Amino acid sequence: MPLALLALAIGAFGIGTTEFVIMGVLPEVAGDFGVSIPTAGWLVSGYALGVVLGAPLLTILGTKVSRKKMLMFLMGLFVVGNALSAFAPSFGVMLIGRVIASLAHGAFFGIGSVVAADLVAPEKKASAISLMFMGLTVANVVGVPLGTYIGQAAGWRVTFVLVASLGIVGLLGLAKLVPEAGRPKSPDVRAEFAAFRNVQVWLALAMTVLGYGGVFAAITYITPMMTEVAGYSAGAVTWLLVLFGVGMFLGNLLGGRFADRALMPMLFTALAALSATLLLFTVTAHNKALAAITLTLIGALGFATVPPLQKWVLDQASAAPTLASAVNIGAFNLGNALAAWLGGVVISAGLGYTSPNWIGALLSGSALLLAFLAAALDRRTRGTTGHVVAASAPADDVPVAARH
C-alpha cells in the first residue's frame, strides 16, 4: 500500500483521539472552569454538531483546490482548534476551539476516502479506505486511554497540547507523502450536488445513520451499564473501552478486506450480526466476562460496516464523490447524536440501563432492510441497462469500482 495512506492514518489517529478523549477528562475540564458536568457535555455535542455542519461546508469550499492542499488546510485547522482548547482561558473559548477542530473532521475523512481510493487499483479501494480509518480505530485503543491517563495525571491541557502536536506530524506527513494529483475536475459545486440525485446515495447515508447509530445507542451509556448492571468498577471502564477499540480495529480491517471481494454480502452480514449482538447485549450485560466479549464484538461489527458503506457512496457518486463522501462522514455523527438521544429517552422512561441496546438493535436492523433495498435497486438497474448507471466521470477522477 502507498505510504500516503500512512499520512492519512496519522491524521485520522489525531482526529479520533481528540473526538473521544474529551469524555475521559470531562470531570477535570468541568472542575477547572467551574461548570457542571452536563454543561461540560457541550464540548462533546458541540464537536458532533461541528462535524455535521463542517463536512459539507468545507468540502464545497475546497472544490477549487487540490485534494492534497485541502487535506493540509484541514489538518492545520485541526491543530489550531486543539491548541486553542489547550490554552483556553474560559469554557466558552474552549468550546470554540472544539468546534474549530471538529470542522476539519468530516471533510478530512470524506476527502481522505477519495484520495485513499484513488491511490490503489479498483479491487483494493475498500482496503485502502479501511487503512485510513485504521488511524481512527487505533486512536480508541491507544490514543484515548493514553490521553485520558495523561490528562488525569498531568492535566487535561497537556493532553490537548499533545493532540495538537500530533496534528503537526500529520500535516507534515500529508505534505511529504500525498501526491499532488487528484484535483477535483468539477467546474462548480453543482456537479458535486448532482450526486444526490441518485437515490442510492441517500440510501447509503440512511444506512450510515442507522447502522452506526446502533453502536452508539449502546456505547454512549456504557459506563452506567457496566458499573450498575455488569458490576465493574468505574476504573475498569477505561479498559473495557480499550476492548471496544480493539474490536473496532479488527472489524475495520476485515470489513475493508471482505468488502473488496463482496461488498453487499459483507454489509448484510455485518448489519445482521450487529443487530443480533446488540439484542444479546441486553442479557450478557449482566455478566462481567460476557459483557466484555459482547462489547468487543459490537465494536468489531459496527466498524466492519464503515469501509463498505463509504465505498458504496464513492461508487454511487463516482463522477463527483467528494461531497457525498464527506456528507457520509457527517451521517456517522448524526447517527451518534440520534442514538444517544433515543437511548436517553428509554433510560429516562425507566426501562433500565440495558434498554438502549434494544434501540441499537432496532436501528441496525432498519439499516439492514435498507441494504437489502439498495441491493435490489442495484440489481434492477443492471438488469435494465446491462451496467451500473453513473454520471460520466473525468478519466483521472475516482473510477467506478466493480460492483460486488
TrEMBL record:
InterPro entries: MFS, MFS_dom, MFS_Efflux_Transporters, MFS_trans_sf. It is found in: Cell membrane. Its main location: membrane. The chain crosses the membrane at residues 42-61, 73-96, 102-121, 128-150, 156-178, 199-223, 229-250, 262-283, 289-309, 330-352, 358-377. It is a multi-pass membrane protein. Residues 4-382 form the Major facilitator superfamily (MFS) profile domain. It comes from the Bacteria. Keywords: Cell membrane, Membrane, Transmembrane, Transmembrane helix. This is DHA1 family inner membrane transport protein. It comes from Streptomyces pseudovenezuelae. The lineage of its organism: Bacteria, Bacillati, Actinomycetota, Actinomycetes, Kitasatosporales.
